């Protein structure tokens, strides 16, 4: 069992659960994520790479931290559970602590790895699976939009600068390029349930939430709150009003409250139509 491949599957299941209205898939994604947390996570916060016959058999790589952080964020957006946001930050912090190259990018192997060559590889080229550095840009971008903490924006920009100096290589980095678009042009949908029910949202909020989670634009981020006062003070939707309602925020500017799922869907489709 590999943590990075499970992370990719968990994020895919969370997305598919909303798109195909299969809540059991989300339950399965959470179970897989919790298994890795319980059995494949080191005390220092790192996801370990492989597990077999009841024990860890390989130390964690950058791919494991990036894929598991992204999986935790997918679960946070789908469920609204704050524990998944904390888990994503823990894996992102592990990447920063053990894999950073000091120039904005990240090595594949950890600084204390003893089973790899002295020359530590560093790449953002996608292969059969997305490159870990590209996934980390997405993780940092989502953390920036979800928390409003400027440090995540700074880390995303630094990571982009580390790999975008040579135009000839960009075609091999679609994950990194998609994450750059997410950083600068994301549609952040804040779904508010009026402070009366815990996630998943009930009543009118369900349709709004489903509309946001099934948006075809990959540069969509969903933030579930019970009241806009609970948002970070610098978030553009902070203190906007009660729900059930949704606010569509782009570039630190938010829409008026939206209560009709069809209207929200039209607003989310507007960018792809304009392109």
Task: Walk me through the structure.
49% of the residues lie in helices and 10% in strands. It has 275 residues and is α+β, with helices and mostly antiparallel strands. The protein has two domains: 183 residues, Glycosyltransferase, CATH 1.50.10.20; 88 residues, 3-Layer(aba) Sandwich (Glutaredoxin), CATH 3.40.30. The longest helix has 18 residues. About 3% of the residues have low confidence.
What fraction of the residues are assigned to beta strands by DSSP?
5-15%
Distance between the termini: 41 Å
Largest sheet: 4 strands, mixed
Low-confidence stretches: 195-203
Q: How do the helices and strands follow one another from N- to C-terminus? A: HHEEHHHHHEHEEEH
Order of neighbouring strands in the sheet with most strands: 4-3-5-6
Query: What is the radius of gyration?
Result: 19 Å
Number of domains: 2
């Amino acid at each position: 069992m590999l943590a990075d491949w499970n992370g990719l599957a968990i994020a895919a299941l969370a997305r598919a659960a909303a798109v195909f209205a299969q809540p059991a898939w989300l339950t399965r994604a959470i179970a897989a994520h919790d298994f890795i947390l319980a059995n494949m996570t080191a005390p220092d916060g790192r996801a370990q790479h492989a597990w077999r016959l009841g024990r860890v058999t390989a130390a964690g790589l950058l791919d494991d931290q990036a894929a598991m952080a992204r999986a935790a964020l997918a679960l946070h957006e789908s469920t609204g559970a704050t524990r998944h946001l904390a888990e994503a930050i823990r894996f992102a912090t592990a990447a920063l602590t053990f894999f950073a190259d000091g120039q904005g990018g990240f090595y594949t192997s950890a600084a204390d790895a003893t089973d790899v060559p002295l020359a530590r590889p560093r790449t953002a080229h996608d292969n059969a699976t997305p490159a870990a550095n590209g996934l980390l840009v997405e993780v940092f971008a989502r953390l920036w939009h979800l928390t409003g903490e400027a440090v995540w924006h700074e880390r995303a920009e630094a990571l982009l600068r580390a790999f975008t100096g040579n135009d000839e290589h960009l075609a091999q980095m679609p994950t990194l390029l998609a994450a750059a678009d997410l950083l600068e042009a994301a549609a952040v949908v804040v779904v508010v349930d009026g402070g009366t029910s815990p996630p998943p949202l009930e009543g009118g909020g369900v349709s709004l939430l489903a509309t946001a989670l099934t948006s075809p634009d990959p540069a969509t981020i969903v933030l579930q709150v019970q009241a806009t006062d609970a948002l970070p003070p610098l978030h553009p939707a902070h203190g906007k009003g009660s729900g059930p309602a949704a606010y569509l925020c782009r570039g630190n500017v938010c829409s008026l409250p939206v209560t009709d799922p069809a209207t929200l869907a039209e607003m989310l489709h507007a960018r792809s139509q304009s392109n």
